[in-house]
Write a structure and sequence with these properties.
The structure holds two protein chains of two kinds. In chain A, the strands form four sheets. Chain A has a four-stranded mixed β-sheet with strand order 8-1-10-9. By secondary structure, chain A is an alpha+beta fold. Chain A has a single domain, classed as Alpha-Beta Plaits. In chain B, helix 11 runs parallel beside helix 25. The longest helix of chain B is centred in the N-terminal third of the chain and has 16 residues. The chains are: A alpha+beta, B alpha/beta. At the A-B interface, helix 1, helix 2, strand 2, strand 3 and helix 6 of A face helix 2, helix 3, strand 3, helix 13 and helix 31 of B.
Chain lengths: 242, 1057
């Protein structure tokens, strides 16, 4: 029996993962393998991750890099809730990459599937190819366009892919396909993805899967994990604990 | 400086708006706005993709820590600011609300900047609320009828002048000026009138004598025949919604102490007040001379160490107090520590969905369930007998306990009914000011607070002395639980006996490492107080208070009002304070029998009196409409929405729309809300992230915590000049300007005393910050460190986007009496958004770091002393199960045939009642509307399918509609969602939708139409169908003890459309 942990001796999970992150950043990029672990027993279905992602990337209506799929199972009074947060799976074998006619989307050396907005032509083949529904198209919609004023948060600069962009008509990322990129701009600053830090149930974990001492590696050793649509051979780097 | 010049155009473009311009840009193009907003960005964008842009949001100069208020949990936050715009909100890593454990308080700012703490989604969506396109920035005056939603923009000074001296409106109506209502202006006269009016009420002075003595001043009273109603000043009423500490004290000083009206209210009875009142009464301490006081209003289990917890009518992942701090404590405990959990809730809440046991109770029968649980514990002898035997503090200390109970104290029983606690003199014992226990057949006097001589008593006692029958409190509680068999209790509450037994076996298998939590669901009933009392007993029986893993009041806070030790004792720093007296409009904290109206009317009182509770929100406007106990002349609405948020508000809508009922209505609000649209004058308020405050901390947090709200960004409302100083329009500005115009005492030059002016809100709140920074020890040994030069530089840099009207270092220092040391301590505190005790102090071995210390009342003598104003019968000192009753004490019958469903409400985590519909990232992103939740079995029977449109109708709202005077009525209708996770026979509707104000519909400003946003009108708000009290007719039912409004007692029919 593992020992029951005591709060008085607990290290904050964020602090632990920040340390893991600093360690990984010291390695050459090609030796890192970023992965996410989501403990479904701790997910409260609050969508804190969904909103943190929106807030970080100022994504417009119709574009959510992360969603939480909610399902009720059972029959009264034996009913349970299941909440399944779904970011991009950052597949080892990403089906979205092969179909891109202009190579705008590719797996970078750290294993993150990225999109080069300046190359993307918005053909949306990748949306169809993704088995997880993780990609969406930026149609150029705005939350506050039909209100008395377009809110400044909609036009605030974002730093996705470490590029400062102000979203405006006729310019990327409008007209591009968009998706979760593990907050790559934050990673390179030594910060964890926004969905990780904000999770109020502390259900989401992030780190270097190549580092046996990282919290994510530890969790995958200790607990039962699964990946979505394992049978497709996409090899997601997002793991779920049950 | 160049910087300010460079800033000016940006601020103008980004943050200033007026509705004239606004109306003109409706339908305009985005391209214009977007280019303008960010054209002045300091960090030039780097075109080359080779050179990446620096990420700015982890730099301390772009961060200001403050406090959220999207719900009342008021979590500590980290506001990230880019060019004066708050672009993201995260949790504050210095605070125990956002990290587990939190960063050490001395962590350098640069280091903390890298840590983003956790925060719930609506807290993060605060960005959307702040920059709501429907925010108002200028003063609006009604240009049509009340509620017609036609406005004209007027200058601030004009509005203040008309409010003070009287105004005239386009429709010919005239409003009275506050100067007519400000009757008694002399503190000595106020005190003299008060003393004698109270003497008349108690019968010590005749009315004739009073009239003779005060003949010259009778015209200043509301009713000279009932002087206890107080002066005419009381006809000015302040009604706040979610107001918090800091602003509370600011507003009370103004209304109660300077204007002289007793009628200051906040919203708690429409939230969960009866839970507070039950807790206060059960934890009240004996103060001597028959007086009780000092009760705690909120206790919680120590979720991080508990081995089993039970939630009644609440949970850890939505609402409550609140999801940000509580979720991780509970998910971690469930998953990693194998904590067990039971959730009592007719709906499968997100917490119930993770519980070991879901107990889908019949709404309003929580006391029946809790008494059944108590019965099981007693019958199976699973209580802590040693703990319960302790009758005073000394006995508790001898057992290493910090708390004790009155389980063994004897209660007099007359005609089979428990009445009051037996006193030593009555039992022929030494006449000490205390109570009596029986030990081995011998009666012993006990002083509950005696820390030297332990007294223990027998638990189950029945006997008599001097012809007085008595029983011990625990014996009486046992009899209360035995009133019904387990099967009967089970039948009432709808939870199988087997489940109750299973849950109780688990609950009593972990010693003191268990706890029961409750909130809104259990108490927003007419029987709410008794439900709460019954639930609290489950904690008392196992003696869990004060223990790690047990039950307590959390870490507490330092005292911002300076009442303990701080340099500024704000309550005392009020030269010329007038004071106030009289029966409050809501007849609260007042025994009916101690009023002259009782002598006139007897029982039943025309409207209920509430001797044990305050802030009876749902009774304010209906009482004014009924003119009982007196009519009012002016109403100041702050943040709340009393025509929308209480149950059954249609009569309140009619009242507030009628200038004959409430001649003057002033409101301050960040938008034109459902109720503020009925105002005569509507002032823009500063939003949460633009203002100051000192909200207190949830007892879920074990480390001592004082949060400091401070402006993160420049307020959007216009600036005005008051007392010669520029300041944003806000609640505070309105109060200061009225104070200036009328000459209210304690404002302006030397307002706090010689050399300390009270001209701006900072003059007040910086003193609160200073008190917190100084700490609660008189010798100053608790003061926070002084900011060094580097920290001071960061402090300034982080505020470089503020105008001089908001941040002027010299001026801020002046508010602190130009004390450089104090200033640097304040900077240190503001740089961290408050002060937070180290996590190592949260626990002290087996005890909580800040354990609850004191008495628990199993028999609540204080409440047993009072009477129901409808029946004249005494309230019960013991918990009991009661059916739903009206104000006259009569049981309310609702036909189960015509109205087959019991309606209840709940909160989604994305919503905070009426103020999150502007959150496009959250509420309007994760949901598009809300639903009438119905069990599939019920839906199948009625032939209702998922997604069908339906309307709710009830006995007092058979049409099922919101009746909006001078505007369009709205049906209480929405889509049905068919689910399994709800008790059959009930329907539930969440509480964040169904808006008609708040930008949901078109309105007119200066003859131009401003288009509403249809997304904001989605869904339904069920409040309109909730029962009117059959006795009162114009208001909802209320809990006569706790004051809670009856949200969860209405039966409805679901009519397919």
């Amino acid at each position: 029996m593992p020992e029951i942990p005591v709060i008085q001796e607990r290290e904050d999970v964020i602090a632990r993962m920040m340390d893991d992150l600093q360690r990984a950043l010291k390695k050459p990029p090609s030796e890192r393998r970023w992965g996410m672990v989501i403990d479904l027993t701790k997910c409260t279905g609050c969508d804190s991750c969904t909103v943190a992602c929106k807030s970080e990337h100022k994504t417009p209506p119709g574009v959510n890099y992360n969603v939480v799929i909610k399902e009720e199972i059972g029959t009264y009074p034996n009913v349970r809730d299941v909440f399944l947060p779904r970011p991009c799976m950052q597949c080892e074998n990403p089906p979205c990459v092969d179909v891109c006619p202009v190579s705008a989307t590719y797996k970078n050396e750290e294993g993150i599937v990225v999109i080069d907005y300046d190359v993307c032509i918005g053909c949306r083949y990748c949306i169809t190819a993704c088995p997880y529904g993780a990609r969406s198209f930026d149609f150029g919609e705005w939350y506050t366009i039909d209100t008395p004023e377009v809110a400044p948060y909609e036009t605030a600069p974002t730093f996705e892919y470490s590029e400062e962009r102000v979203r405006e008509d006729g310019k990327s990322p409008i007209g591009n396909v968009r998706k979760c990129n593990f907050c790559i701009e934050r990673l390179h600053e030594g910060l964890l993805p926004a969905c990780i830090t904000t999770c109020v149930g502390r259900a989401r974990y992030f780190g270097d899967l190549n580092d046996p001492d990282s919290l994510v590696s530890e969790l995958l050793r200790q607990k039962h994990a699964f990946r979505l649509k394992e049978e497709l051979g996409t090899e997601p780097k997002v793991y779920y604990l049950t | 400086m160049d910087k300010t010049q460079e800033k000016a155009p940006l601020q103008t473009k980004v943050t200033r708006r007026d509705f004239v311009k606004t109306s003109a840009i409706v339908g305009g193009t985005l391209a214009v706005t977007s280019q303008v907003n960010w054209a002045f960005r300091k960090v030039a964008r780097i075109a080359s993709s080779e050179k990446k842009t620096e990420y700015p949001l982890n730099k301390p100069e772009n961060i200001i820590y403050s406090v959220c208020l999207q719900c009342h949990t008021s979590c500590t936050i980290k506001g990230k600011v880019l060019d004066g715009v708050m672009v993201k909100i995260d949790g504050n890593p210095y605070s125990p609300m956002n990290m587990l454990p939190h960063l050490s308080y001395d962590t350098p700012l640069e280091e903390a900047a890298k840590y983003d703490g956790k925060l719930c989604p609506k807290g993060q969506a605060g960005v959307n609320t702040e920059y709501d396109p429907y925010r108002i920035t200028k003063v609006l005056k009604r240009a049509g009828k009340r509620g017609e939603n036609k406005w004209q923009v007027i200058p601030f000074d004009q509005a203040i002048n008309e409010i003070v001296n009287g105004g005239t409106f386009a429709d010919g109506t005239k409003t009275p000026g506050l100067k007519e209502i400000w009757a008694v202006r002399d503190p000595d006269l106020m005190a003299a009138l008060k003393t004698d009016a109270m003497a008349v009420a108690s019968g010590e002075m005749s009315l004739d004598d009073f009239k003779k003595k005060h003949a010259a001043h009778l015209d200043l009273l509301i009713d000279p025949d009932h002087p206890d109603l107080g002066p005419k000043n009381n006809q000015f009423v302040f009604q706040a919604g979610r107001i918090e500490h800091g602003r509370k004290e600011f507003a009370k000083r103004w209304l109660k102490d300077a204007f002289g009206s007793v009628n200051w209210y906040e919203h708690t009875t429409i939230c969960e007040q009866s839970h507070h009142i039950a807790t206060i009464q059960v934890t009240n301490q004996y103060k001597g001379n028959g007086k009780w006081g000092g009760g705690k209003e909120h206790l919680k289990p120590d979720f991080a160490n508990a081995e089993m917890v039970i939630f009644f009518g609440t949970g850890a992942f939505e609402a409550n107090f609140g999801p940000t701090p509580m979720s991780e404590l509970v998910t971690w405990s469930l998953s990693d520590r194998n904590m067990k959990m039971a959730v009592v809730d007719p709906r499968l809440s997100k917490t119930a969905g993770k519980a070991t046991w879901w107990l889908p109770v019949k709404p309003g029968t929580d006391a029946a369930l809790a008494l059944a649980m108590g019965r099981w514990i007693l019958e199976h002898e699973r209580y802590d007998a040693q703990y319960l035997a302790n009758a005073n503090k000394a006995a508790a200390l001898a057992d290493d306990e910090t708390s004790w109970s009155n389980a063994t104290w004897l209660v007099k029983v007359e005609n089979g009914k428990p009445t009051r606690l037996l006193r030593p003199a009555e039992a022929g014992l030494d006449d000490i000011d205390g109570f009596v226990v029986s030990k081995n057949g011998q009666l012993i006097a006990v002083d509950p607070n005696d820390a030297k001589t332990p007294v223990e008593g027998d638990l189950f006692v029945t006997g008599s002395v001097n012809g007085i029958q008595y029983k011990s409190a625990l014996q009486l509680y046992k009899e209360a639980t035995m009133e019904h068999s387990m099967e009967e209790w089970s039948e009432i509450c709808g939870i199988p006996v087997k489940t109750i037994a299973e849950v109780m076996l688990e609950y009593t298998s972990h010693g003191k490492k268990v706890g029961v939590d409750m909130y809104r669901g259990a108490v927003q009933h007419t029987n709410g107080y008794y439900n709460g009392q019954a639930i609290l007993m489950l904690n008392v029986l196992v003696g869990n208070a004060g223990w790690t893993g047990g039950y307590g009041g959390g870490g507490g806070h330092w005292h911002e009002d300076g009442s303990k030790a701080g340099p500024f004792n704000l309550k005392k720093m009020h030269p010329g304070k007038i004071g106030s007296f009289g029966v409050p409009l809501t007849r609260e904290k007042w025994h009916y029998e101690k009023s002259t109206l009782f002598k006139r009317d007897g029982y039943p009182a025309k409207r209920p009196w509430f001797p044990y509770t305050g802030n009876v929100y749902q009774e304010i406007i209906p009482s004014a409409a009924a003119g009982y106990p007196y009519p009012i002349k002016a109403l100041f609405l702050h943040k709340g929405t009393p025509a929308f948020s209480p149950p059954g508000p249609n009569p309140s809508l009619a009242a507030i729309a009628d200038p004959n009922v409430i001649p003057l209505v002033i409101a301050d609000d960040i938008v034109i809300g459902e109720t503020s649209m009925y105002a005569d004058y509507l002032f823009p308020d500063t939003a949460i992230w633009e203002r100051w405050g000192t909200p207190h901390t949830t007892p879920a947090i074990q480390a001592k915590t004082s949060k400091m709200r401070q402006p993160v960004i420049e307020p959007l409302p216009d600036k005005v000049t008051i007392f010669g100083e520029q300041q944003p329009i806000s609640m505070e500005a309105v109060m200061l300007a009225i104070a200036e115009k009328m000459g209210l005492p304690g404002y302006g030059k030397d307002g706090f005393g010689k050399g300390l002016d009270f001209n701006t809100r900072q003059d007040y709140f910086l003193k609160m910050a200073a008190n917190l920074a100084f700490g609660d020890k008189k010798d100053g040994s608790e003061a926070v460190p002084e900011a060094d030069d580097k920290e001071l530089a960061i402090f300034r840099a982080a505020r470089a986007h503020f105008s001089a009207a908001l941040f002027d270092e010299k001026r801020w220092k002046k508010a602190l009496g130009n004390d450089e040391t104090l200033w640097r301590r304040v900077v240190y505190l503001l740089n961290r958004g408050g002060r937070f005790e180290d996590f190592s102090k949260a626990y002290n071995g087996k005890k909580l770091g800040h354990p609850y210390s004191g008495l628990f009342n199993i028999f609540v003598d204080n409440v047993a002393a009072g009477k129901h104003s409808g029946t004249g019968e005494h309230f019960s000192g013991l918990p009991r199960f009661e059916p739903i009753k009206d104000a006259s004490g009569k049981v309310v019958e609702q036909s189960p045939e015509k109205y087959p469903f019991q309606l209840f409400t709940y909160k989604e985590i994305y919503g905070g009642q009426s103020r999150t519909i502007s959150d496009y990232w959250d509420q309007l992103n994760v949901a598009k509307e809300n639903y009438i939740l119905m069990n599939k079995a019920d839906a199948d029977r009625l032939g209702i399918k998922d997604g069908d449109l339906a309307k709710l109708v009830s006995p007092t709202n058979p049409k099922g509609e919101w009746v909006l005077p001078n505007n369009e009525n709205i049906p209480v209708a929405g889509k049905v969602k068919v689910i399994q996770g709800i008790r059959p026979g009930t329907v539930a509707v969440s509480w964040h939708w169904g808006h008609w104000g708040y930008g949901a519909k078109d309105f007119v400003v200066d003859h131009r139409k401003v288009k509403g946003d249809a997304r904001r009108a989605a869904g339904l708000c069920p409040n309109a169908v909730m029962l009117d009290d059959p006795f009162l007719k114009n208001a909802t039912l209320s809990d006569p003890i706790g004051g809670s409004a009856s949200f969860l007692d209405t039966r409805v029919n679901v009519v397919k459309l």
